[in-house]
């Protein structure tokens, strides 16, 4: 996607550049997860050391403590010195404590007298209790108080500000990067890719698929179907089972959104063939889950149970704990409807164990009443297993 590729290039340009040491990311907070994803992709092949702090911003003091603790932990681990002392006074202003923690980490873990690797701290909370307070913290970090070293020397720091924020005068080594990942920007980017003759045919087809998906998400159903059909037509010329499966399931998604369940089933069933050819468990899981849900809604319970069974096996292969729990839960419901209470109890118990092991409390709360009701319909030892599970501390 062109918009995300450009974001990646901008981030790399700042990290590798020589003119700026701090980058203020001006972006909606909802879009920051995309920024973190782009930085993680860069980190995979980068020689630099990334330190990310996406934790919630409750206050400047609290966030400074999180950063300082994280930096000290890394410095101690890299230095092999568990007794490495925290830097600076603990009652200093938040920005000063962050500055001292980053200096300590940089000077402890990076080789001296070299320009690479660099330390890349990402001081960007994904949530904030007070946007005003977090903006004040960003301005303090970027203010370059007396004694603040030249950050462009072995350090590249990311901070955040919301769109429209008053940043005030900034030092020359601070760069402001506006990040627009709105639906309009994403749509414009993929549309440009789809129509760019300099982009490879495969990239244009991928962009066309993304445009169709965005059309579907925004209720432009006729345009979405036309786009998906164009993608599928291209796979007849240049065979690509991934694109074929996504295009066919995309048409199924539109039919499902239009509440035309029979039409949706027909397209999802067609998508099964190319999805199976890809060998991609995640893609096959998406189609299988969709069919299982629709079979259940249409009263085709035998088919639904079969497909939920397949979905839970695919979810284990991916792995995808949420899908795993959902598939086991609905398989249990179908087994319960046909009177197979022992099988249903085993499915509900397995779903609850996966939910517990992966910390999905809401899903676990949904399953507890099912387990409690099923416990009285099954014999030991399953009844004892369910009782033991239900009596475990939450």
Which CATH class of the largest domain applies here? Answer: Alpha Beta
**Rg value:** 26 Å
Oligomer: single chain
- CATH names the topology of the largest domain as Rossmann fold
Overall mean pLDDT stands at 89
Helix content: 55-70%
What is the CATH architecture term of the largest domain? 3-Layer(aba) Sandwich
Proportion in β-strands: 5-15%
Q: How many alpha or pi helices?
A: 16
User: How many structurally independent domains?
Assistant: 2
| Largest sheet features | 3 strands, parallel
Q: How are the strands of the largest sheet arranged?
A: 4-1-5
- Topology, number of strands: 5
Shape: globular
Write the layout of secondary structure elements.
Elements: H1 2-16, E1 22-26, H2 32-45, E2 49-52, H3 60-79, H4 94-109, E3 119-122, H5 131-142, E4 157-161, E5 174-178, H6 183-194, H7 201-217, H8 221-237, H9 241-257, H10 261-278, H11 281-297, H12 301-317, H13 321-337, H14 341-357, H15 361-375, H16 382-390
Parallel strand pairs: 1-4, 1-5, 2-3
Helix pairs in contact: 1-2, 3-4, 6-7, 7-8, 7-9, 8-9, 9-10, 10-11, 11-12, 12-13, 13-14, 14-15, 14-16, 15-16
Question: Can you walk me through this structure?
Answer:
This protein has 394 residues and is mostly helical. The chain folds into 2 domains: 2-181, Rossmann fold (3-Layer(aba) Sandwich), CATH 3.40.50; 296-394, Serine Threonine Protein Phosphatase 5, Tetratricopeptide repeat (Alpha Horseshoe), CATH 1.25.40. Helices cover 63% and strands 6% of the residues. It contains 16 helices and 5 strands. The chain has helices spanning 2-16, 32-45, 60-79, 94-109, 131-142, 183-194, 201-217, 221-237, 241-257, 261-278, 281-297, 301-317, 321-337, 341-357, 361-375, 382-390; strands at 22-26, 49-52, 119-122, 157-161, 174-178. A 3-stranded parallel β-sheet has the order 4-1-5, sandwiched between helices. Strands 2-3 form a two-stranded parallel sheet. The longest helix is centred in the first third of the chain and has 20 residues, at 60-79. The protein is globular.
């Amino acid at each position: 996607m062109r918009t995300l590729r450009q974001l990646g290039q901008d981030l790399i340009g700042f990290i590798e550049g020589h003119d700026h040491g701090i980058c203020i990311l001006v972006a909606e907070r909802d879009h920051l997860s995309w920024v973190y994803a782009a930085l993680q992709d860069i980190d995979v092949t980068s020689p630099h050391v990334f330190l990310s702090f996406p934790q919630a911003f409750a206050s400047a003091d609290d966030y400074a403590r999180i950063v300082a603790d994280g930096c000290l932990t890394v410095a101690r681990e890299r230095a092999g010195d568990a007794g490495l002392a925290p830097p600076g006074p603990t009652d200093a202003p938040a920005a000063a404590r962050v500055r001292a923690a980053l200096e300590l980490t940089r000077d402890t873990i990076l080789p001296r007298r070299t320009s690479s690797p660099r330390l890349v701290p990402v001081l960007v909370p994904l949530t904030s209790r007070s946007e005003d307070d977090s903006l004040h913290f960003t301005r303090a970090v970027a203010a370059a108080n007396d004694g603040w070293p030249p950050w462009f020397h072995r350090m590249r720091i990311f901070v955040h500000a919301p769109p429209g924020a008053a940043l005030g005068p900034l030092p020359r080594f601070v760069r402001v990067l506006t990040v627009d990942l709105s639906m309009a920007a994403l749509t414009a980017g993929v549309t440009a890719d789809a129509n760019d003759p300099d982009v490879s045919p495969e990239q244009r087809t991928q962009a066309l698929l993304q445009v169709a998906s965005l059309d579907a998400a925004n209720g432009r159903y006729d345009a979405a179907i036309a786009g998906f059909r164009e993608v599928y037509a291209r796979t007849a010329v240049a065979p690509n089972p991934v694109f074929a499966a996504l295009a066919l399931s995309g048409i199924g998604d539109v039919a499902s959104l239009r509440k035309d369940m029979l039409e949706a089933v027909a397209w999802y069933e067609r998508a099964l063939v190319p999805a199976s050819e890809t060998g991609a468990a995640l893609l096959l899981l998406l189609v299988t889950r969709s069919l299982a849900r629709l079979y259940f809604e249409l009263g085709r319970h035998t088919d639904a149970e079969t497909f939920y069974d397949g979905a839970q096996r695919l979810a284990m292969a991916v792995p995808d704990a949420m899908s795993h729990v959902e598939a086991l839960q609905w398989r249990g419901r179908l087994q319960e409807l046909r009177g197979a209470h022992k099988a249903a109890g085993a499915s509900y118990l397995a779903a609850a164990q996966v939910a517990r092991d992966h910390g999905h409390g809401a899903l676990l709360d949904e399953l507890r009443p099912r387990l409690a009701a099923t416990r009285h319909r099954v014999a030991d030892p399953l009844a004892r297993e369910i009782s033991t599970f239900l009596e475990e501390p939450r």
